[in-house]
């Protein structure tokens, strides 16, 4: 979103993320895939760092949906851990998962659409590029801290 592109590209990215996390979320909740929580949480933190770092150097956004799909697979496993802790009833599990994923998709599209227009509005100002860099650097710092926490480097 911060790199530009239209709403179509942005919706493609959001939908790729939701589709990917829906796949791994479903597989994990059905106990078909399982990875250690610290690994998943560390990978999620690194994915945040990667995307923020990309905002500093990448110019092309058309293929970002592929990267986002990959990160969505990782994030789906994180969502699964939360849902598994909730001890979901196995009756109507497919409906529960579909409802959750549809809700996430609608929520993401709403938030991203609002943010898209806010970013577009800000781009008219000469300092917008600096803001993008500072937001990206701040996100890298926060994501790096989360990663360090998950691997036990920071308590």
Could you walk me through the main structural features you see in this protein, from its secondary elements to its overall organization?
- This is HupE/UreJ family protein.
- Keywords: Membrane, Transmembrane, Transmembrane helix.
- The chain crosses the membrane at residues 32-53, 65-83, 95-119, 131-148.
- It holds the Pfam family HupE_UreJ_2.
- The chain contains five helices and no strands.
- By secondary structure, the protein is mostly helical.
- The protein has one domain (7-150).
- It is globular, with a radius of gyration of 17 Å.
Q: Would you spell out the secondary-structure blueprint of this structure?
A:
Layout: H1 7-29, H2 37-57, H3 64-85, H4 93-122, H5 128-150
Helix pairs in contact: 1-3, 1-4, 2-3, 2-5
Percent helix, as a range, is: over 70%
Number of helices: 5
Instruction: Tell me, rounded to a whole number, the average pLDDT.
Output: 87
Briefly note the structural class of the backbone. mainly alpha
> What is the radius of gyration?
17 Å
Largest sheet: none
What's the domain count? 1
Distance between the termini: 32 Å
Relative strand content: under 5%
Uncertain ranges: none
Order of helices and strands: HHHHH
Shape: globular
**Overall number of strands:** 0
Transmembrane segments: 32-53, 65-83, 95-119, 131-148
Keywords: Membrane, Transmembrane, Transmembrane helix
Organism: Zarconia navalis LEGE 11467
Pfam family, one: HupE_UreJ_2
